[in-house]
Design a protein that fits this description.
The complex is a heterodimer of chains A (514) and B (328).
Chain A (H helix, E strand, L loop, with lengths): L7 E10 L2 E11 L4 E5 L6 H8 L7 E6 L2 E2 L5 H7 L1 E4 L11 H6 L5 E2 L2 E2 L1 H13 L16 H13 L5 E5 L7 H16 L3 E5 L3 H7 L2 E6 L2 E7 L5 H9 L3 H7 L14 E10 L3 E9 L3 E6 L5 H8 L7 E6 L2 E2 L5 H6 L2 E4 L3 H4 L7 H5 L4 H4 E2 L2 E2 L1 H15 L15 H13 L5 E5 L7 H16 L3 E5 L3 H7 L2 E6 L2 E7 L5 H10 L12
Chain B lengths: L2 H34 L6 H26 L7 H16 L9 H29 L4 H19 L5 E2 L3 H8 L1 E2 L2 E2 H19 L1 H11 L1 H6 L4 H27 L1 E2 L8 H11 L11 H20 L4 H24 L1
Antiparallel strand pairs in B: 1-4, 2-3
């Protein structure tokens, strides 16, 4: 396999947007039947490269050959017809239609001009069987769990004829078990000689499933290597363009030292509940403390955060904020009380895409910037410029629409949205999901620095590493309950995982009942 | 230079068209009319066009705000009729006794506009409280509003002569019609509001991403109610201007089709129907285009009914250009 002629070869690919080159002579090669990791920080050019390949963009220069022939797709549909399928981060399916309809959408089988349902159901079942999924294809898609929906999306994309499947961060909404299933699918595809391009920010996944890796930086291809010949550390260093030594000193996350001392209570909840997602949440966040909130997807972490922020109502239980009872009815109330909430989904609940960096960053601060209805633009500009410098946000200027920024930079703007109002408590929901290693370290270091100055932080994260290294204390949630509080030496990876999996009885003596 | 330079140039032209398409279209229309339509640049023609476009623009200003939040207001024409029906009833003392003619006229300027604003509030209330889609919610007053106006006047045309009141439609200051001055003030105030105030940003945030706006502390429902109130107030003012020009109020006719003209002006002017964007200058240009097209067709003997088809075509063209611009 390793010496065979390439399935796909891209050479000297250049693409400019306005005057800025997004790709500057990038190259990319995939062999038949291999799983190839494509990595790089946000803005390195990965997405642009893929979009050039799949016909979403037209390249300015360079050559592409696929299956030994020069290749130029005019549209994603054409690329798909040629055998290149893409599976996106978000599932683009129609929830209320049946599984069969979703799989056969756009390529319906007809008989005498009418839809041949029997054959379409058979095709759908056959396709899914290939991935060991046996479900009733006549049911509407939305009745199935996300993982199954993802399988349907993959089955649809791969079809019978794909030779190359591109997976763009396919795991970001999956739980560990679902990820295992996905990896099974990838191996299955590989066995059938289908090549897979795997884009992800999670290093462990790359090492678990990929054969080779291409590293991109600043629109160029900087390294191509076999996965087993490139140590993790070196891979990170190559992505960042730093030497390996400096990465070691920083540690794997950017948090640095922990806060060990006890602090004044800032937020205390007692038996907070909003069934079905939140059953019984009891937690405490002190001033200057970073408190982790761990748990599997669907354990009620985000729902808890939304209650604390006034976005959803609590059914019962009590919230005390700085020793006073606190019952926010709207996010506005929480913001006035000094709470910020950085949401999990940037696109749906974070950015206002058409508004500028300036307006996005100061959206929550507007009341403080306004005098009798008129915005003090001078003051606004000073605030925004200050945070752009402090967080190293990369944008052409303050007026650039936020949708044009890379994911990491968008996230920095959103973190700044809350920091600029000088909050007492900051709730971060997956603060580093889907962003590059550099932005991740910047954000983590900043969180730590702010905590040192007295900010209380409640950090939801699915990455156990982030919880263990980043928080001073952590709660683990399971089925809507805070089932354990971990701190000190008890806060280590094995302990957190054990509680997630088994509840309170899991690990050794350090796991305390709440 | 290739293909590359060439392709970049076509992209530039395309985005230029998308961004300034409306302005270019307006200039082309003016130039074309100067060549084709007799007396197009005469003072009289200009003043006719300006007088007619004023009400469209005033209504379209409110509509721009509504559309910027991602909504739509179909009731504007009916609200014009309501305001138009109330005003003569008030200054003729038929509704309640007025102390003097002048006081009656004063009340007739204010009260009908406030009533239209109240109707706008009702639209907003339906939308925010019952979570009814804006198109359906405003359909209520689109239908019932004109009915109310007809019931109040027993369906009769109210003819009147009240020079003090008709200043708003027929008066001039230094040769400039009063309604044009009023229109300029309204456009300027709206543009300033969108650019400089917190309310302006909140409108765009609600239209751009409602969920994100709420989580950033923007008072979403409050903002939505306010834009419909503003749209109602604008419609009320436009209604008064129309009846002043006509020297009569006919509940069956005042503001008929205005919702369409206003939406067309906003769309042609480059404000997206999905919300999050508002261009007051664009709306003014859009209204001027619609007016000139209508005048051009009329002056060249094309009936008004055919002109409606052309207007619909214009909207399609505008939307097509916008999508082009987004893709480029």
């Amino acid at each position: 396999m390793s010496e065979s002629a390439p399935l796909l070869s891209m050479r000297g690919i250049t693409k400019r947007f306005g005057g800025n080159p997004a790709l500057a002579g990038a190259s990319f090669e995939v062999r038949p039947g291999e799983v190839h990791a494509l990595v790089g920080q946000n803005g390195a050019g990965k997405s642009t490269l893929i979009k050039v390949l799949t016909g979403y963009y037209r390249r300015d220069a360079g050559e592409v050959s696929f299956l030994g022939q020069p290749f130029q797709a005019a549209s994603p549909k054409e690329a798909q017809a040629a055998g290149i399928s893409t599976i996106h981060q978000e599932i683009n399916l129609v929830g209320y239609r049946s599984v069969t309809e979703n799989i056969c959408l756009g390529r319906e089988i007809r008989r005498f001009g009418l839809l041949d349902w029997r054959r379409m159901h058979a095709v759908a079942e056959q396709l899914l069987a290939r991935f060991n999924v046996a479900i009733d294809v006549r049911q509407p898609l939305h009745v199935y769990p996300i993982a199954t929906q993802q399988m349907v999306a993959i089955a649809r994309a791969v079809g019978f004829s794909a030779r190359l499947v591109i997976m763009d961060e396919p795991t970001s909404s999956l739980t560990d078990r679902e990820i295992d299933v996905l990896f099974g699918v990838i191996r299955q595809l590989k066995q059938e000689g289908v090549a897979v391009v795997f884009v992800s920010h999670k290093l462990d996944e790359l090492y678990a499933v990929c054969d080779r890796v291409t590293v991109m930086r600043d629109g160029r291809t900087v390294r191509v290597a076999r996965m087993d010949e490139l140590p993790k550390l070196e891979l990170v260093a190559t992505m960042l363009g730093r030497d390996a030594g400096s990465v070691v000193r920083q540690g794997a996350t950017g948090f640095g030292e922990k806060n060990a001392g006890a602090t004044r209570a800032l937020l205390v909840t007692t038996d907070l509940a909003a069934p079905p997602a939140v059953q019984q949440v009891t937690l405490r966040v002190g001033a200057g403390e970073i408190v982790g909130l761990a748990g599997l997807l669907g354990s009620g972490r985000t729902e808890t955060a939304r209650i604390l922020f006034g976005a959803d109502a609590a059914a019962s239980g009590k919230i005390m904020l700085r020793d006073k009872e606190f019952a926010p009815r709207e996010p506005r109330d929480a913001i006035r009380a000094g709470i910020g909430y950085c949401t999990e989904d940037r696109k749906i609940e974070g950015i206002v895409p058409d508004m500028s960096v300036r307006e996005n960053m100061t959206l929550a601060l507007l009341p403080a910037l306004t005098r009798s209805g008129v915005v003090d633009e001078e003051k606004q500009r000073r605030v925004v410029e200050g945070f752009i410098a402090r967080l190293g946000i990369r944008c052409t200027n303050l007026e650039q629409p936020i949708r044009q920024l890379s994911g990491g930079n968008q996230q920095k703007v959103l973190v700044a949205r809350w920091l600029c109002m000088d909050p007492k408590l900051l709730i971060l929901d997956e603060p580093t999901r889907g962003i590059d290693v550099g932005a991740k370290a910047d954000i983590q270091a900043l969180i730590r620095e702010l905590a040192r100055h007295g900010l209380g932080v409640l950090m939801i994260s699915s990455e156990v590493e982030e919880i263990v290294e980043g928080s001073d204390r952590a709660y683990v949630m399971r089925d809507g309950r805070t089932v354990a509080e971990l701190s000190g030496d008890g806060l280590e990876e094995h302990g957190v995982l054990a509680v997630m999996a088994h509840g309170t009885d899991g690990a050794n003596g350090e796991v305390a009942d709440v | 230079m290739s293909e590359q330079a060439l392709s970049r140039r076509t992209v530039d032209i395309r985005s230029l068209l998308a961004r300034h398409g409306a302005l270019i279209a307006l200039l082309v229309l003016v130039a074309g009319n100067m060549a084709l339509t007799p007396h197009f640049l005469s003072w009289q023609t200009m003043s006719v066009n300006l007088t007619q476009v004023t009400t469209i623009i005033i209504v379209a200003v409110g509509m721009t705000l509504v559309i910027a939040t991602g909504g739509i207001d179909l009731s504007v024409g009916a609200l014009m009729a309501i305001a138009g029906a109330f005003a003569p009833l008030i200054f003729e003392g038929k509704l309640f006794p007025v102390p003097s003619v002048l006081a009656g006229v004063g009340i007739a300027f204010v009260l009908p506009v406030l009533i239209a604003g109240l109707c706008g509030w009702f639209n907003g209330y339906l939308i925010t409280h019952f979570r009814i889609q804006p198109m359906i919610a405003t359909l209520v007053l689109f239908t019932a509003g004109r009915g109310v106006a007809q019931v109040m006047t027993n369906g009769n045309l109210q003819a009147f002569r009240m020079p003090a009141f008709q200043v708003i439609g027929l008066g001039k200051v230094f040769g400039v019609p009063v309604q044009v001055i009023l229109m300029i003030l309204i456009v300027w105030a709206a543009a300033w509001t969108m650019r400089r105030t917190r309310f302006g940003r909140e409108v765009l945030a609600v239209g751009g991403n409602q969920r994100a706006a709420r989580l950033a502390g923007v008072p979403v429902d409050h903002t939505i109610r306010r834009v419909y109130i503003i749209s109602g107030l604008c419609s009320g003012i436009a209604g008064l201007i129309v009846i002043s020009i006509n020297s009569s109020a006919d509940a069956n006719v005042v503001g008929l089709g205005s919702e369409f003209d206003a939406i067309a002006a906003v769309t042609v002017g480059g404000t997206r129907l999905s919300g999050g964007v508002a261009s007051m200058t664009g709306t003014v240009i859009g209204a001027l285009i619609i007016q000139i097209v209508r005048y051009m067709l009329l002056a060249n003997g094309v009936p008004d009914s055919a002109a409606m088809v052309v207007k619909a075509g214009l909207i399609i063209l505008a939307v097509a250009l916008q999508t082009q611009g987004q893709r480029a």
